[in-house]
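Re: that chain you flagged

S.,

Sorry for the slow reply, it's been a week of failed gels. I finally had a moment to sit down with the sequence you sent. For the record, here it is as I used it:
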Amino acid sequence: MQDPTATARPRKIIHIDMDAFYASVEQRDDPALRGRPVVVAWRGERSVVCAASYEARRFGVRSAMPAVRAERLCPQAVFVPPDFVRYKAVSRQVREIFLRHTELVEPLSLDEAYLDVTAPRSDLPTATAIAEAIRAQIRGETALTASAGVAPNKFLAKIASDWRKPDGLFVLRPHRVEAFLTPLPVERIPGVGKVMLSKLHAVGIRSVGELRQWPREELERLFGSFGGSLYRRARGIDERPVEPDQPVQSISSEDTFARDLPLHALDEAIARLAGKTWQATRRTERIGRTVVLKLKTAQFRTLTRSLTPDRPPASEEELRAIALALRDRVDLPADTLYRLVGVGVSGFRDREEAMTQPPLFE
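Prediction finished late last night. Pasting the structure tokens below so you have them in one place:
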């Protein structure tokens, strides 16, 4: 088996994941919520759960679950509307702690990040010691807990951080990678969702060890480019570097309706979301070239339509016009109802590069 750390200098990667972040902030700031099942979500038929405290998770409540289902699973739950301004402020505090130890910090969201501590700023002797220090500093300065995984690469560190949640630390050393991965169910591999899991089960693959027995060519024949990723992950291989301050790749706005609507009734929402997205693009120096319209039907089928015009949209009006034109490329039956619409801009490039790219229809 190829050594996943066979490089001139093996990386030391930490993945930090704040424990039930939004819900934990709410419990920290309101003592009356401590020890109670807390669900961070707006109430309503179209709302989804942003976060659930560990007390609520015992009842099966999970992030991204419809709020009405969460209420059925845990009638005694306390619903708290999200306060993202407050969560972002705490997230900035946590990131400042990370930066004391390394400048190589790649945030994935407000509550998790990768850190490359191969050449750390601090004088702590090991990656494990750095992870322990970070967790202690988070607890001391924010009164919150975080879980950490230490491993030779990002893929393994992310799995490791989930191993002893909440408030845990797990270290996966290079010589233990194969033994650790072999018995894991394949759904522990990031990117393996319900659809992919059913496809893997259909060909008899249920564990990472079983996945490792398949040739790369056969996995790519069955699963396309993701088959190559599965082949590498089964062997613990992940060569992706930690990339701090990644440039913007896409910006979008979307809305879930109070009731399902037909396509012809979406003009107002599309125009409003185009305006919101346009204003968001003004906050970056880069230029987005591709306009994307996203729709989700009442049956939860998601479809997108996109167009890269000859030149990037130069105004809110142009962005709105393209988004509305993309609506006309939706070819589902006229009686189809939609529960969500979104307007986005992707394909961001530096300004000089963006103005020289050839047109592309997608």
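What I noticed first: Residues 9-172 form a domain with the Alpha-Beta Plaits fold (CATH 3.30.70.270).

Talk soon,
D.
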